Amino acid sequence: MSDKERDAGNEGSESVTYTLRNIPAELDRVISDLAISAGKPKATFLREFLESSFHDVIDQFSLRSPLVATLDDALASELGTKVTEQRYHSHFVTRWNREYQNLLGIETEEELRRVLMNNTPYLRVRANQVLKGWAAIPRGISLTFTLFAEIAGRDKATIDRAWNNIFYSQLPDARHKFYRDIDVIRALKKQHAVCGYSWTKDDITVRIYRPDDYGHGAWRVLLILDQNTITQTWNIPFPVLDGRRFTTDPGYDAMINTAPDSWDKAFRFVDGICELHLYSHGVGEEENPTPLPSVAEALIGSVVHELL
Fold first, then answer.
1. Where does 107-249 have alpha helices with state H?
2. pTM for the full model?
3. What is the domain count for the chain?
């Protein structure tokens, strides 16, 4: 059991005094021995231990760093919105920050500064993934986005832990969207797909993978344009492939005029990506005359022909 009361700390800052009860005598002996070994009073030793164990370096850096503030303002200006100066805080944010520190091995503000600098090129991409329709963005959001981009560049085990410990949601398609967003940033970092197969040519990446709930012969396709490529919307005809059929995810569908009064289904890019479904049509996957690498090559060819 513990009680606490608030005090005025040094230089006007607020501090909290804890009163702890029912500490086992054996634990008290260990604490006393460690404090003696450290050459510090027991209260000082315990306070410093709590500070080092529970200090939220991410929260403090996001509030104090001029670079984070500058990136927040630049991002808001680019999105045509504003940064809220009122601080948003909850126990979820504190827990997520702790998970970020553990996953990425972050202990100091200098390590956070390196993460911020290394992943600044992916801020706009992450903003396009999650900020559409926001009237205002919270202060410190640029640091949050660069932490996500840093995780995207790590190994699959770290990415899976991030999904389970930070981003997990039971909302439909949430898991797909998380790994899709990860793979978009991995493609821009020139890294292999976290799941499925990946092909890159002419600044276009095609990733083909089968979600757990998809049947044999059914695939999802993610097309990603390099950031150096203009990412306006185009209508692109599907390649005609023996034994394969495409459909688009909502939002990426288009129509193309192939003859007078004749229209065919097509696809388009939105913010540099496009999502399709691919099926083995009229033949089993093992016997399909058009293997997946040929599908990727044909899609890249169609994009290059129309856009580049």
1. 109-119, 123-130, 141-152, 156-162, 174-188
2. 0.79
3. 3
